[in-house]
């Protein structure tokens, strides 16, 4: 797939032409055994046609794209999609297996902060070393030295060997050096999660001011809120291939729709805490009692739990919570501990239903978590865990037709819809 992220005809800063990158799995590269085996094959031509039994991973496959001056490009995709590999190929950290890469101008690559630091050198020495690696002359580094130290907030430790720095101090110094190289292209991977909150904000403020000056940048982040704010072009990568490219308003809904479908496919069976009661299955039903995974906004949803007990259990209390994926903190809850509606007794196989006549949830995938308590309310029979997932979606053609679950605008995204009015 060929992607040109530019709207104008300026010469490109980045150009990928059918770039692929392959990694060999299950072996350390450059080991003595690998080297000897390689020499043996080269010295014995009759072995050249021996089958290759190694397993390989294509991190990038036939990627073609062009980025021109003034473009701010974001790359999205789940873990292992090839995002970091693309940035490493772009910045010259690794070479492509095939294809051609052309990059014009000075590149500041914030992929691994402080990757060029020497642990035994002081912060001062490493500023000069890292600055030189990033393409600055000694005179340029000298002129920016005070600004770098002030940005990193390391005045007291600048003559201390960096091996004594904390990870946060290390990250601050690495970002400060890279931010002061005055790059033609800023490349940022998931590096801003390091450091304290105030420093992260300083980094985001710098990036915002950088892109506001009609500068060129390429970002990889799982923080889609940030990408939506910063970028005018998004590239969606999956399994090393470009799936979609365009404005965030076009790419994000399609990406969310895909990720929500993936989440629904990853249902797991509940795990019992002991053998007294086991939840055999969990399903979600509409008003007609039909099992489904996707529901229109504002519709009724019933959570049906099929259980089996090994004997009679008196007054077990079921507690359910509807949560954001992976969080486990309920947005909406239903608890027999609070409402006192525990069944008098369960024995054998049965079905318990909890019905919500109208959930005020906006489109996305939600999880249902739950637990079951003994009659004495001091012990759990089934621990708090994820029981299943369902999806809320915007209707496509009618009030009861589930459509896409992807949101329209990240900054308007919130899980719960409450009635409100505007007055002006």
What features would you describe in this structure?
The chain is of the alpha/beta class. The protein has two domains: 2-46 and 55-262, P-loop containing nucleotide triphosphate hydrolases (Rossmann fold); 265-412, abc- transporter (atp binding component) like domain (Coagulation Factor XIII, Chain A, domain 1, Distorted Sandwich). The chain has helices spanning 32-43, 83-91, 123-133, 138-152, 167-179, 197-212, 224-230, 248-265, 336-339; strands at residues 2-4, 14-25, 55-67, 72-76, 98-103, 107-110, 185-188, 216-220, 233-238, 241-246, 277-285, 294-296, 301-309, 313-314, 317-323, 332-335, 345-346, 349-356, 364-373, 380-393. A six-stranded mixed beta sheet has the order 6-7-8-4-9-10, with helices on both faces. Helix 3 (123-133) crosses helix 5 and helix 4 packs across helix 5. The protein is elongated and about 80 Å long. The mean pLDDT is 83.
